[in-house]
Design goal:
- The complex is a heterodimer of chains A (about 110) and B (about 120).
- Chain A is mainly β and about 110 residues long.
- Helix content of chain A is about 0%, strand content about 50%.
- In chain A, strands 2, 4, 5, 6, 9, 10 and 11 form a 7-stranded mixed β-sheet that branches. Chain A has a 4-stranded antiparallel β-sheet with strand order 1-3-8-7, with no helix packed on it.
- Chain A is globular, with a radius of gyration of 13 Å.
- Chain B has about 120 residues and is mainly beta.
- Helix content of chain B is about 0%, strand content about 55%.
- Chain B contains no helices and 11 strands.
- Chain B has strands spanning about 5, 10, 20-25, 35-40, 45-50, 55-60, 65-70, 75-80, 90-105, 105-115, 120-125.
- In chain B, strand 9 (about 90-105) and strand 10 form a beta hairpin.
- Chain B is globular.
- The chains are: A mainly beta (about 110), B mainly beta (about 120).
- Chains A and B meet through strand 5 and strand 10 of A and strand 5, strand 9 and strand 10 of B.
Chain lengths: ~110, ~120
């Protein structure tokens, strides 16, 4: 199985801050990486697929980059509704595997 | 926009079988790959497996010996059975659609683009 790691595990930030989350795969997954946002009590929501393609309806302040084993999710200007947990997931091979998550909370 | 809805018992006894069904709101069930994902309380996400059109399946090796998925296109439903459950199987269970581009003999997967709201399953006597 491909192992996924994320850093940091949590980040405290203020509205308007730029936030960057890193995800690393244990082997080359090309660009087959997805990012999800999950709020408490809710299902995950797909934000980005294929490393950098924004899912329909997702605000442009979210962006993704990377390929191979190293990937980044950036929120350019944090909004109140962005406080949540973010997960990366590799979609290169089965079984799909997720990172452990990064919690973004209010400073 | 397609919607997914999980249903099934919220309480299952240890050693018994957990059975869940996901109802798809439109007729796209024959077109896509359909997954189950679970999340233990306070923990991260675990992909359980997928089922596709013809009934082809792929299960997470960590659960493969206990999992069966099935598809009923006439009812626009797919199902999950997890046998011999223990307290470690207590989790929120989500059904989800796998987005991507699918060709004859090849597929590119984008991730899970549509999710159900989830259903809590507790394993306890």
């Amino acid at each position: 199985d491909i192992q996924m790691t994320q850093s940091p595990s949590s980040v405290s930030a203020s509205v308007g801050d730029r936030v960057t989350i890193t995800c690393r795969a244990s082997q080359d997954i090309s660009r087959w990486l997805a990012w999800y946002q999950q709020k408490p009590g809710k299902a995950p929501k797909l934000l980005i697929f294929a490393a950098s393609t924004l899912q329909s309806g997702v605000p442009s302040r979210f962006s993704g980059s990377g390929s191979g084993t190293d990937f980044t999710l950036t929120i350019s200007s944090l909004q109140p509704e962005d406080f949540a947990t973010y997960y990366c997931q590799q979609a290169d091979s089965f079984p799909f595997t997720f990172g452990p998550g990064t919690k973004v909370d209010i400073k | 926009q397609v919607q997914l809805q999980e249903s099934g018992p919220g309480l299952v006894k240890p050693s018994e079988t957990l059975s869940l069904t996901c109802t798809v709101s439109d007729d796209s069930i024959s077109t896509y790959y359909w997954s189950w994902v679970r999340q233990p309380p306070g923990k991260g996400l675990e992909w359980i497996g997928y089922i596709y059109n013809s009934g082809s399946t792929n299960y997470n090796p960590s659960l493969k010996s206990r999992v069966t998925m099935s598809l009923d296109t006439s009812k626009n439903q797919f199902s999950l059975k997890l046998r011999s459950v223990t307290a470690a199987d207590t989790a929120m269970y989500y059904c989800a659609r796998i987005g991507g581009v699918f060709g004859s003999g090849w597929s590119y997967y984008y991730g899970m683009d549509v999710w159900g709201q989830g259903t809590t399953v507790t394993v306890s006597s």
